[in-house]
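Case 351 in the screening queue. Each case pairs one protein sequence with one candidate compound; here the compound is protoporphyrin IX containing FE. For every case the pipeline is the same: read the inputs, emit a complex structure as tokens, and attach any notable structural observations.

Predict complex for case 351.
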Amino acid sequence: VAKATVPFFGRVQAGVETPQQRFASFVALNLRSGVGSEGVARLLRLWTSDISLLMAGRPAMGDAAPELADLPHRLTVTVGLGHAVFVAIAKPELYPLSIKDLPGYSIDALESKWSGGDFVLQICADDQFAISHAQNELIKGAKPFADVHWIQQGFVQHRPNGETPRNLMGQLDGTDNPQPNSKDFSSVVWNDGKDFEWFANGTVLAFRRIRMQLETWEKLSPGAQETVIGRNRTNGAPLTGTIEKDLPDFAAKKDGELVIAPDAHIRRASTGRNIFRRVFNYSDGVLSDGQADVGLLFAAYQAEVETFLEIQARLAESDALNRWTVPIGSGLFVILPGVQEGGWLGQSLFN
Ligand code: HEM
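Case 351 output:
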């Protein structure tokens, strides 16, 4: 297992459809001033080479500690670009999204230290050590071109047999998610290149750092917690069903009342167009009020940003969960298409 690798080269980048690893580090970097098309191309070529080596369990070029690279634990590094990169390379017309950044929502209390970024590296593995080594090498390589803006680290509950993991609020999180390697997954996540040819097999990452207010959440009864989500806490079944995979019946009523409340999270989040959530928990020391700083690194992948925007706007407007969660970080990134051997990440942007 320690030597297990995920292929780097392919139609799409690794780290999205890849079965979720236990740990993640999201690294946002900002372009240094004066770096233009040539610098960005050099950085993307360098990252291509280093990421392909590190994911294969081999040292990066000029690796400061080559003996640390041999146990990748299914390491993946997924590279995304923010709007500013398209401006820096003088190709703003190739930016494939309708907005430069996610809008602000009434529920947000965004902190700039957790928000934005010109590049993102999503680094995942089943071992934090492997992540840390890769992160150090990739940040070091980027130095002439970009500086780190933020790093956010997360983890997933490890459950045997591929069961849906719980988040730190106690819920099974990931039930109604497209299944990797299904047709549904491809249409939800991978862009078809119809609007921007170069973007075929890319995707969009909407990233949110969402703090959980566990001290008040934990005061709710199990039944009240279930009403907030619309699912059973024990096995994740919708309140209208008996097992986790039962489909929710949003029309069902009992004693004249909707069984799944009007503002239940799953009702508000259901629009008929899904997104793929690949979320990690975080637990990061203590807040000034003495409470533990915990929450979700919410990473959603979708072929078009509009799908995410529609769901997020509905949740901002009404979602019972909002009383116990606060978005404090936000970012929007264009995840580059995959690379074939001999090519490099983002190459088609420079032709
Ligand atoms: C701390 C914040 C959040 C928590 C704790 C949370 C928790 C959950 C839970 C427990 C479920 C039900 C199980 C499942 O299908 O995975 C769920 C479903 C879902 N959530 Fe969240 N969520 C959070 C934030 C968000 C955000 C920000 C979005 C999108 C903007 C979102 C979109 C969805 C969607 C699309 C579903 C599936 C709904 C369905 O069709 O049944 N969630 N979430």
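Case 351 observations:
- Residues 167, 169, 171-176, 208, 210, 212, 229, 231, 248, 265-266, 269-270, 275, 296, 298, 300, 311-312, 315, 321, 325 surround protoporphyrin IX containing FE (CB under 6 Å).
- The helical segments are 37-55, 83-88, 128-142, 183-189, 214-217, 222-229, 265-269, 305-317.
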